[in-house]
Amino acid sequence: MESEFLVKQAQKGDGEAFIQLISQYELILYRTAKRLGLNDEDIADLLQETVLTAFEKIRTLREVKYFNTWICRILLNNCYRFMKQHKQVVLLDSETLNATAHRDDLPIELDDMLNSLDENYRIALTLYYVNGLTTKEISEFLHEPEGTIKSRISRAKQHLKNNYYFEEMLPQ
Is the pTM of this model over 0.70? Predict the structure, then answer.
């Protein structure tokens, strides 16, 4: 609720509200970019570009509740464009994800469960549940059919349900 209030204030031109809002999401944005295999220097530049774009275009955000998805999408677009310009390959491998997958607000058990999944399942679940992207956004970013993404999320949830007893940890 506080985030939605800050978004509304930022849309009215309140710079301080925008700064508070960004401070809530900077770690999520950093980890999202880090999962793509980018180095910290490039990530810093991309985050700065993302924040600037978000600041300039925040008035175009129609639904304040989708701020997280919106700003992550800006970041992913910036990262994708950067990697294309620098001909970098998107490295969503196990080593990259394992090194950056832990979030302070995720229980360690859930982090371990995610790491036990096949790479494709883990990527889909992470982008969907941790980063809040829609299946369509994940599909566009990974250049795979939306049905494939939905299947991976469903199968990953079923795998976790069958192999772990922490059902309440993963949103339905």
Answer: no
